[in-house]
Amino acid sequence: MTAQSRIPHFCAMCGNPLIEAIPEGENRLRAVCPRCGHIHYVNPLPVCGTIPVWEDKVLLCLRAIEPRRNYWTLPGGYLESNESSFDGAIRETEEEACARVLPRMLFTVIDVPFADQIHFFYLSDLNSPDFAPGPESLECRLFKEEDIPWDQIAFPTITRTLRFFFDDRRTGLFRTHHIILRKP
Ligand SMILES: [Zn+2]
What we know:
By secondary structure, this protein is an alpha+beta fold.
């Protein structure tokens, strides 16, 4: 999903087609309703997930849905209303991998301005090696570092998060990483 594709075409209040205009007192183009005056704001969406760790392995999910079906990902997804990023990360891990985790620390914060997203991944303990693919996954599997399918990872935010994890594990010093991904 691109930032541009999220701009609505019709007014959510009255159904009238929207126009691009700079609202009074603002300095950027917005989708504005010329009939009722409603301004449709589009802001980045938070994506929350976990790095579920069991012994020396990390749990990955093979995506059953587009985009990037048949590519491996960490469990994660869009935050719901009234939900904290911490709780959203736990929920997404349950939904995609039927796995229970205990998040230990916020590990990556990755701004993705061109996709209108911010990704938050929590370094987490897998409570037990019990997991199974949820409806959005074809398969879930624990990977050692040497077995990670680097050329079959779904998204650059996942690759970067996994690299940070294995790098920090080598030094034994885990810290929160913040990066900004630019359009490839
Ligand atoms: Zn309207």
